From TrEMBL:
Subunit structure: Component of nuclear RNase P and RNase MRP ribonucleoproteins. RNase P consists of a catalytic RNA moiety and 10 different protein chains; POP1, POP4, POP5, POP7, RPP14, RPP21, RPP25, RPP30, RPP38 and RPP40. Within the RNase P complex, POP1, POP7 and RPP25 form the 'finger' subcomplex, POP5, RPP14, RPP40 and homodimeric RPP30 form the 'palm' subcomplex, and RPP21, POP4 and RPP38 form the 'wrist' subcomplex. All subunits of the RNase P complex interact with the catalytic RNA. Several subunits of RNase P are also part of the RNase MRP complex.
Keyword Hydrolase: yes
Naturally occurring in which organism (per UniProt): Mesorhabditis spiculigera
Family: Belongs to the eukaryotic/archaeal RNase P protein component 1 family.
Residues annotated as signal peptide: none
Highest taxon of the lineage: Eukaryota
Record-given protein name: Ribonuclease P protein subunit p29
Length: 164
């Protein structure tokens, strides 16, 4: 401490005010997850147009006269009306609803009773009916991020460099 013209000057390092971390805005529901209030406010009726769009999408993906094979795994199921036919948790068998969110390990859907449910893919079998055809999806085969399932794996070969 030094006294200069009746003023006290501290020569110690000044304490800097702590900066508060900026909070992320809620723009991405996948990153921030839905709160209980958000899930309670979701209504089945608001997802019915999404289901109609999904039916058009899947009809174009799977023509009625052809077998679709691998296309089932690569399809996008946001908006599909799925029913759980087998599950490790027997309480989940028979549940059905429109898919609102598909993650790597779960399928989240809203039921007709406006309940938001989460079904794990591991050990579950899902079914849906479209144009009189019944399709079965094995959750164990879908254990990937949905956007990665549809991508074709590229094989990269190293470049050969010839030196003389």
């Amino acid at each position: 401490m030094v006294r200069v013209d009746k003023q006290v000057v501290h020569l110690d390092t000044a304490k800097r005010p702590k900066k508060e971390k900026a909070k992320k805005k809620k723009t991405n529901l996948v990153r921030n997850n839905l709160t209980k209030e958000d899930k309670a406010s979701l209504k089945y009726a608001s997802f019915e147009p999404l289901y109609k769009l999904w039916c058009e999408y899947f009809s174009g993906l799977a023509p009625a006269d052809k077998t679709i094979g691998d296309r089932l795994l690569k399809a996008d199921y946001h908006g599909a009306l799925l029913m759980v036919t087998e599950a490790d948790n027997q309480c989940q068998v028979g549940l059905h609803g429109i898919v609102t969110l598909e993650t790597r390990y779960t399928i989240q859907m809203i039921t007709r009773a406006d309940k938001y449910i989460t079904i794990p893919k591991q050990g579950s079998v899902f079914q849906f009916v479209l144009e009189g055809r019944v399709f079965s999806l094995f959750g164990d085969q879908m254990l990937q991020k949905p956007d990665l399932r549809g991508k074709k794996a590229r094989v990269r070969q190293p470049l050969r460099i010839f030196l003389r």
